[in-house]
Amino acid sequence: MRVVIGLDLGTSGLKAIALDERGQKVAEARAGYPLLTPKPGWTEQRPEDWSSALREALKTLVAQLAGKEIVAIGLSGQMHGAVFLDSEGQPILPAPLWNDQRTEKDVRYLEAVFSKAEFIRRTGNPPITGFQLPKLLWLKRVYPDLFARVRKVLLPKDYLGFLLTGVYATEYSDASGVGAMDITRKVWDEEILKALGLVPDLFPELGASHRVVGGLKREWAEGNLKPGTPVIVGGGDNAAAALGLGVSRYRPGVGSISLGTSGVIFAPLEAPNPDPEGRVHLFAHADGAYHLLGVTLSAAGSLEWLKRIFPEVTMEILLKEAEVVPLGAQGLFFLPFLSGERSPYLEPKLRGAFIGLSLAHSRGHLVRAVLEGVALSLAVVYKAIRSLTKVNTLLATGGGSSSDLWLALLGGALGVPLYRAVGEEGAARGAALLALVGAGVYPELKEALLATALPQVAAPPPLGKMGDLINDYELLVEGVLSYYQRQLL
């Protein structure tokens, strides 16, 4: 049996799976590592911890694959992080992550060099604190001696590729979240880099997601994982997860919605069509086309936060209490800005709130308001996406999608049919599918997606029309935004 390995370097751990030629999972393994928060607003991880997790996960996975031929490894991982390497390929300091907020000054500097509108025209997005380019400017500004030692800056998954092959390489989907790639020509924007005193050679070579980076180095061989096994460059986590669901240019009108720690709406596009206001992101897709991406930073994360306040009860009990609360939670709203907010406000200093609390409200009302607040937040994100492209169906994934109540609320808020994917394995699956193409098991990605499609089941019917609630929610957010903007002046 021929199999491929898909790796996903997430924020909480590394996931490795093996798929056969029909896309069926035959093995899986996981390995964890710590999240470091040395200062308020800073989030980072040690690349050395990723390396240890990679070795552990591969060893565990390969032990389950005796008698099978491993023909390729595909890569995916968290986007936007920055791995700063010296001339020996060694990390200079811990890697700031996608949700790190230390770069506010550097984003303001970027907006002074090129206007927000010009950045959107060139790269598909305005300058954003979490992107990689501001992290590079932060290092140059705060630690110039360390910056002088930098020879390459890699995205997290591309660091795995470098470890496995010794080759510096990336691809369009992840690179479009750096903040320095010309989104139309798919090259590093030399004009932007020159204006910032940077050179394109700092970044790895660009190319398609299914291409081979290089052969596996001997020190990573394990059992029947042989030296020279092709390593495929893969895709950023959102693009790879979408491919794992079959969401691509080959299924027009079908997008996805994820209810993980963050909430993400993904909509494929054929051509680069950015939002002029920058409310949602435009990235290259791993299928060779493009996609729009809108993010609510605290989706299931909001519910997990609330659960910590009530440790004496299970999540199941909390959700049952929320079921009996009427739509609108009797005037109680929740704004899910526990980590600031990405789409459509792009304001890292926004903070969450319950608004409308009264003596009539119980614990069930708090839970219901959180569920509705996340649904309303994603409805506002979807409104921005809907103005740019048409989405007829959304495939629901992530831990929160297991809740019938939450999906019913989402269906009512978005007004678009929702389906659950059965057997979804996230970005690791998408990385493995790209490996099937890179290894030549399938000649084209379209053929691989058709042959490995996951079954789907309809979500529960929408729970009421929520247009009035969406309007009230947007008015409340306008007031909160105004408050925080006054505080920042």
Question: Concise description?
Answer:
This protein has 489 residues and is α+β, with helices and mostly antiparallel strands.
What does this structure look like?
- The protein is α+β, with helices and mostly antiparallel strands and 489 residues long.
- It has a domain at 2-238: ATPase, nucleotide binding domain (Nucleotidyltransferase, domain 5), CATH 3.30.420.
- It has 16 helices and 21 strands.
- Strand 9 and strand 10 form a beta hairpin.
- Helix 9 (237-245) crosses helix 14 (426-438), helix 11 packs across helix 12 and helix 12 crosses helix 13 (404-414).
- It is globular.
End-to-end C-alpha gap: 63 Å
Strand order of the largest sheet: 15-16-14-13-19-20-21
The residue ranges in which pLDDT falls below 50 over 5 or more consecutive positions are none
Q: What percent of the residues sit in helical stretches (DSSP H or I)?
A: 25-40%
Topology of this protein?
Blueprint: E1 2-9, E2 13-20, E3 25-32, E4 44-45, H1 47-62, E5 69-77, E6 83-85, E7 95-96, H2 104-113, H3 116-123, H4 132-142, H5 144-147, E8 152-154, H6 156-165, H7 172-175, E9 181-182, E10 187-188, H8 190-195, E11 212-215, E12 230-236, H9 237-245, E13 254-259, E14 263-269, E15 281-284, E16 290-296, H10 300-309, H11 315-323, E17 333-335, E18 353-355, H12 363-386, E19 393-397, H13 404-414, E20 418-421, H14 426-438, H15 445-451, E21 456-458, H16 467-488
Parallel strand pairs: 1-5, 5-12, 13-19, 19-20
Antiparallel strand pairs: 1-2, 2-3, 4-7, 6-8, 9-10, 11-12, 13-14, 14-16, 15-16, 17-18, 20-21
